[in-house]
């Protein structure tokens, strides 16, 4: 048996489809909500999920909260905007989880902009561990970009679908959603420092990595847009870190106890 672990914040547009997706392989569904102000939790409860309220602690820490509430050792973790494909459902059903030597399974992830599957810029196959035995594996307790730490994972040749962005406008709004600010705060707290060249160097490096080495140039406008967005986000991250170092007024006004 498998338990589902879904973290949410104002996901009323996604939560019903996510729950329907995981219900194909999970008999127990736990939603860890960080104070949604829409109908997310109402919908989740109506669909049979158990809802746990927890102020947001950061990505990996938040996803581990459910481990205290799930019924089964095997846990399937999906974000609210992710779905299992028919092939993935079949692959999970074929697993002998009671006898397997593996402590986790990694899935390929199709990252989407609108209805467009982005196969370049490192966006595919984008393997990520999402099914794991909580007795032996769990998400790293980090605040950003967390992944499951497992000793003996296995890759499954099937996909989940990640509806990353509804359109290109949302892609370029990513820096405005303060991902770069959060990252800059975390780096500053860890004692990392930038110099006057850091924003340019890191921004250019992110763009070149996505567009050249991860073949963004083969993805047309979408590939170029993803590469530019990555470069912009990296530039802003280091520009904000540098700002904390060189502007006492900005530093004094910032609340480092409230990264999220």
From TrEMBL:
Keyword Glycosyltransferase in record: yes
The keyword Transferase is assigned to this record: yes
Residue ranges of every copy of the Glycosyltransferase 2-like domain listed in the record: 6-91
Leading EC class: transferase
Protein EC: 2.4.-.-
Pfam families xref list: Glycos_transf_2 (PF00535)
Highest taxon, organism lineage: Bacteria
CDD domains (alphabetical): Beta4Glucosyltransferase
Keywords: Glycosyltransferase, Transferase
GO molecular function: glycosyltransferase activity
Family from the record: Belongs to the glycosyltransferase 2 family. WaaE/KdtX subfamily.
Protein name, entry field: Glycosyltransferase family 2 protein
Species whose genome carries this gene: Vreelandella sp. SM1641
Lineage per the UniProt record: Bacteria, Pseudomonadati, Pseudomonadota, Gammaproteobacteria, Oceanospirillales
């Amino acid at each position: 048996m498998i338990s589902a672990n879904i973290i949410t914040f104002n996901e009323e547009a996604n939560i019903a489809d996510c729950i329907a997706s995981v219900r194909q392989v999970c008999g127990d569904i736990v939603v860890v909500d960080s104070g949604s102000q829409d109908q997310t939790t109402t919908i989740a409860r109506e669909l049979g999920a158990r809802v746990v309220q927890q102020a947001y602690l950061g990505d990996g820490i938040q996803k581990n909260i459910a481990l205290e509430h799930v019924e089964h050792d095997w846990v399937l973790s999906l974000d609210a905007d992710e779905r299992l494909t028919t092939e993935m459902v079949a692959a999970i059903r074929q697993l002998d989880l009671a006898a397997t030597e593996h402590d986790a399974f990694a899935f390929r992830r199709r990252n989407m902009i609108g209805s467009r599957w982005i196969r370049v810029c490192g966006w595919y196959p984008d393997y990520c561990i999402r099914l794991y035995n909580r007795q032996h594996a769990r998400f790293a307790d980090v605040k950003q970009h967390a992944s499951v730490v497992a000793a003996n994972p296995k890759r499954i040749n099937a996909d989940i679908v990640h509806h990353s962005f509804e359109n290109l406008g949302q892609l370029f709004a990513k820096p405005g959603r303060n991902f770069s600010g959060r990252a800059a705060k975390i780096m500053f707290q860890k004692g990392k420092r930038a110099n006057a060249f850091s924003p340019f160097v890191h921004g250019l490096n992110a763009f070149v990595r996505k567009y050249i080495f991860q073949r963004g140039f083969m993805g047309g406008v979408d590939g170029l847009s993803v590469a530019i967005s990555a470069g912009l986000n990296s530039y802003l991250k280091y520009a904000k870190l540098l700002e904390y170092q060189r502007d006492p007024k900005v530093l004094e006004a910032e609340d480092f106890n409230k990264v999220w």
